Amino acid sequence: MGSSERAASERVLGQEHLLDALLAERDGLLSVLDRVLALHGTARLIRDAAGADAGFVADVEGTSQAVIRWLAGNRTDSLQDLAVPAGQGVGGRVLALGRPVRVSDYVTARSITHQFDGVVSREHMSAMLAVPILEDRPGSARTVAVAYAALRGPGAFGDDAVRAVQRVAVDAARALRLADRAAVGQAAAVAAERQRMQASLHDSVGAMLFSIGAQVRDLRTTLPDNPVLRTRLGRLESDISAASLALREALLALAESSPERALPIEIAEHCRSFEARTGVPARFVQLGDVRPLDAERTTLLVSAVREGLLNVEKHAGAATVVVSLGEVDGGVQVAVADDGVPRRDGDEDTGSDGTGLGVRLLVEKAARLGGRASLVHDEDGGTTLRVLLPEPPR
């Protein structure tokens, strides 16, 4: 083989290694973005980090129990899908206390309850450690999963093992946040597609059925007396009516959306509609998770986005628009920011403060809900409409 052929072969080999590395990186990212894969991997990491014989993870369901879903190093299926109520056993104490719990011998330990001695004995486990996987929120932390490590035979978990499992728990919490956000994004994309399908079916098939039905009714009234033809037209009209009913039911099914998805989906749809209508890029940015709001608050925030985009379309002459949604100061805020020309005080429907009627109505409605709305003109051009609403009382 000549030198040029060897060089070409080495380049191909290098490209293969690069491709393998990229594929491995992709697989790693996908595993992080998938809740099941992330926690299954966590079970193995816990076992290795603690120097344990087994590691397993329980997913918290509701507020009062955790269910063991992912295991590494287990010998039987006795722990699989085991429900652990708050306060019971090692994991239940972690769920109740929100801090690590360890015992040197599970079956004889006096600090825990013993509903699960049988399944633990079948696994021949002795020392056990459990650590909460915490979701950090402003001012509080919530246990979203429980990480376990267990030994078979003599031994105990020291402080180093506790810290090692806590580090894995921190990484697992981060992976869960990414997985949950990815799941929300996927759900939002699916819901948006359902909404587009609904609009398309309504505008095409719905309009077609209405047109055919109208023509059949006209034929029945204008044709000369023909009992056979009249009967056939009657059946056709009945079939069209049944098809229209089935279409309405399908449209209702496509329209179903949970409250927590409704707000970002509505905002994203308004941005897409604005961009298609005006040709001005409108980017929607969701700044973290937003908790579900009631219908009144959701409607007002969507109205604020619609009003902001309408003002941009009518007055701004903008090149770009950014619409953001996020939690601010304990409430939920939407903002519509453009880089165009601010509205002049002499424009139609403008009040003494330089704001239009639509914005003044938003200010009044937001105030009734304990929130606030503002329209700010930047000195170097551009305008930002903000509406902040407090979360409803629980």
TrEMBL record:
Keyword annotations of the record: Kinase, Transferase, Two-component regulatory system
Signal peptide: none
Cellular compartments per GO CC: membrane
GO terms for MF: phosphorelay sensor kinase activity; protein dimerization activity
InterPro entries: GAF (IPR003018), GAF-like_dom_sf (IPR029016), HATPase_C_sf (IPR036890), HATPase_dom (IPR003594), Sensor_HK_TwoCompSys (IPR050482), Sig_transdc_His_kin_sub3_dim/P (IPR011712)
Keyword set includes Transferase: yes
Location of the GAF domain: 34-186
SMART domains, per the entry: GAF
Name used for this protein in its record: Histidine kinase
Source species of the chain: Pseudonocardia kunmingensis
